[in-house]
Every structure is written in C-alpha cells, then in structure tokens.
Design brief:
Elements (H helix, E strand, L loop, with lengths): L2 H23 L10 E6 L2 E6 H21 L1
Antiparallel strand pairs: 1-2
Amino acid sequence: MNNVQKIIIIIGVVIILIGLTLPWISKLPFGKLPGDIVVDKPGFKLFFPITSMIILSLVVSLIIWIIKKIF
C-alpha cells in the first residue's frame, strides 16, 4: 500500500472518530479552563484561551508524533 493511501485512510478514520465523539467533546470544559483569559466590558469582549490552546497543541503534537512513528 502506498504511503499516500495510508495517510488518506488515517485522515478519513480520524474524521469519522471526531464525528462520532462530537457529542461528548462538546461537553468538555474546553475554552473555560483556568488560565483562559476573558475580558468582558460593555461593548467589548476579549477571549484569549491560553490554557486551552496549550492543551490542544500538546494533543496535536502527540498525534503527529504517533503518526510519524507508524510510518
């Protein structure tokens, strides 16, 4: 099997898994974690999810590392 074919299959499986787990993922407190900055003033709202983005970066890095180990 060609490497491109494997990558396309893995991407398809990941999209299916995300779609199946979306109801549970939406219940996670992602974006409301301690360390996420919210400034809410009249006429102005700033949302800066520092902690959430660090966790997301770690998860994506782990996934990429696992994919590199497989191939």
